[in-house]
Amino acid sequence: MLYSREATGGFDETVDRLSKAVTDHHFGVIETIDLKEKLNAKGVEFAHGCTVLEVCNPQRAKVALDEDMSLATALPCRIAVYEQAGRAVVSMMRPSVLLGLFEKGEGIATLASEVEQDLVAMIDQACDAGGG
């Protein structure tokens, strides 16, 4: 259900490498959400780094939405970078699993698999030393 990797670098470095990997794979970062900052701003003390990148390939998103607008509930793709036991971890929900919940045709399953391959490659790039 999840694809997760422990990064070789620190938290901030991993977020930066992930951002670069996203553009290297012809996706865009729609939004970067710093959950630690958001929670602390609401008066909830939260000490762990946790940043979520919402990423999208517009051409592929259009194909999915043209098939069924309800797929918008699963878009954009989200990749989380978080601190766990002193290490940076990068994780995402597999699009093949998420879009599989919609019980759509083979075209959407193929699209989800293609997007998943790209997201895995982005995470791998971000987690490996030298990252790109």
Would you write up a description of this structure?
- The chain has helices at residues 11-24, 35-41, 58-67, 95-100, 106-127, and strands spanning 2-6, 28-34, 50-56, 77-84, 87-93.
- With 132 residues, it is an alpha+beta fold.
- It has a single domain (2-127), classed as TT1751-like domain (TATA-Binding Protein).
- Strands 1-5-4-3-2 form a five-stranded antiparallel sheet.
- Helix 1 crosses helix 5 (106-127).
List the topology elements.
Layout: E1 2-6, H1 11-24, E2 28-34, H2 35-41, E3 50-56, H3 58-67, E4 77-84, E5 87-93, H4 95-100, H5 106-127
Antiparallel strand pairs: 1-5, 2-3, 3-4, 4-5
Helix pairs in contact: 1-5
Low-pLDDT parts are none
Q: Which topology does CATH recognise?
A: TATA-Binding Protein
What CATH architecture label applies? Answer: 2-Layer Sandwich
Q: How many separate domains?
A: 1
The H-level CATH homologous superfamily, spelled out, is: TT1751-like domain
The overall strand count is: 5
* Cα Rg: 15 Å
Total number of helical segments? 5
Spatial sequence of strands, sheet with the most strands: 1-5-4-3-2
User: Taking all residues together, what is the mean pLDDT?
Assistant: 93
Q: What share of the residues lie within helices?
A: 40-55%
Class from secondary-structure proportions: alpha+beta
Could you tell me how far the N terminus lies from the C terminus, measured between alpha carbons in angstroms? 26 Å
The top-level CATH class is Alpha Beta
